[in-house]
Amino acid sequence: MSKSTLVIVDPATPLPPGTPEHAGRLRLADPDQPQVLVSDLGVTRGDGIFETFGVVGGDIQAMEPHLRRLLNSAVLLDLPELDLEALERAVRLAVAEHPDDELLVKLIVTRGVEGTGRPTAWAYGFIGEDYSPRRLDGIAVVTLDRGYRHDIAQTSPWLLQGAKTLSYAVNKAVLREAARRGAEDVIFLSTDGYVLEGPSSTVIIRTGDTFVTPRTDQGILEGTTQHALFGIVTDLGYTADYRYLRSEELTSADGLWLVSSGQQIAPIISLDGQQIPHDPELTQTLLKRLQSRDS
Amino acid sequence: MSKSTLVIVDPATPLPPGTPEHAGRLRLADPDQPQVLVSDLGVTRGDGIFETFGVVGGDIQAMEPHLRRLLNSAVLLDLPELDLEALERAVRLAVAEHPDDELLVKLIVTRGVEGTGRPTAWAYGFIGEDYSPRRLDGIAVVTLDRGYRHDIAQTSPWLLQGAKTLSYAVNKAVLREAARRGAEDVIFLSTDGYVLEGPSSTVIIRTGDTFVTPRTDQGILEGTTQHALFGIVTDLGYTADYRYLRSEELTSADGLWLVSSGQQIAPIISLDGQQIPHDPELTQTLLKRLQSRDS
Question: Region labeled Disordered — which residues (chains A, B) (predicted)?
Fold first, then answer.
């Protein structure tokens, strides 16, 4: 039995008023068979958007924040209006049809075949990698220049910074650069020295009793897991703050983490070869709370 | 009959020594049917490379420069070694099987399905848009900030500038921004004021009897059509030069063009709303020579 599920949404745009909703709109398909046309702009231009939903114990985490972020990406890319309700049902169906209750669902919306103006969309449920080593032993991380100033999203919105697009070749290339430097992940810095985000995660820094994450007006994504984490740490009596973080602040931190839907949370134990303080007990507390959160 | 052809190359990497080459390696497939898996990194991450070959009168233009550039992109993306000879045969087959003799062939190589280490590759032959209005009437162009310094490829190679990747969502977004500004195409500028390239073309500037194009050590592509054009203008008695171009030099030019495999050459008649000198006769001469070139 295949360990993945695929639900195709057609159309991904709202139905004309009065059209009866019918079962045919969501279609279960075989993920081991080709399902995408070579003329789809998602393939030819990385012209589309995505979200990855974590599923723990059968519960889909952060549904609403993910859909809100998808919508924001769609606006940044001038995509046609999407039917978020249909996309949400596709994610739920991909989970319901999957034999496991710990999985990831990747929801993808592409601009579709050139000239049709008709987005292609699907939800793909699959088993993620084993994140235990990252969560337990921590990760070595390097900082890399993203090449942009921290205010790029304001000055040059056509560069799509802050949108979660399918054009992620750079996000994969930096992981290979990290591996060449003996590390497992990356924190992007702006050219003017601000801390941005990981290639597929949000940066969390602890200084004393305060947890901080970079402000999202720097062309970075609003972290769905970070949002949940801030609720948790506040509940634990810590302070949580969004602000501009200078790169120098990373190495003087009392704790550093990357958080994302798949790994949930991974402690950074070294940054650019320099050791970072690590409190395994605190990380395990945060991990357990993240995994058992309600939504 | 479908006005497009599709040739799938499997494998796209060299065969083990001693393996007999067999017909099954290149496979004609139906481009109107899905041929790509949803788990292919070309779709999920725009993690792949491409080249678009112009075909005029049945002749494939600039085969060798395109393949050399593809190889350069593959190196920048750390892709496995490719079998360029098999890829070349796929392009030729896509042309041979196509009913027309004026077409474009898009050769795509993706990193393949995650974890397999096995690239996916295909050649897709199709009829391009009608470029006559661009070539004859010229185009309105706007300059847009690419967000990077001109030396980004040297300082931060992980940003993949200078590779022709499938992560081209920005290259499409800037065309929408151009349309909002009443223009049809874009010239990218570096943050430090240098002229770079178009989103899918090379910039050519004429100053007196000299044709100039920006140096390619600025994270931009080596233009295959520009290369052919430089041979032509030299043959016509002009001088041709590669150098750093300041953005101010664009508006004081005696002529500006964008060149690429599809459109071949299009004169720029206005830049950021300012009129640019245009010599239709010269453009037509260059177009005819580009279309009738040997290779």
Answer: 1-29
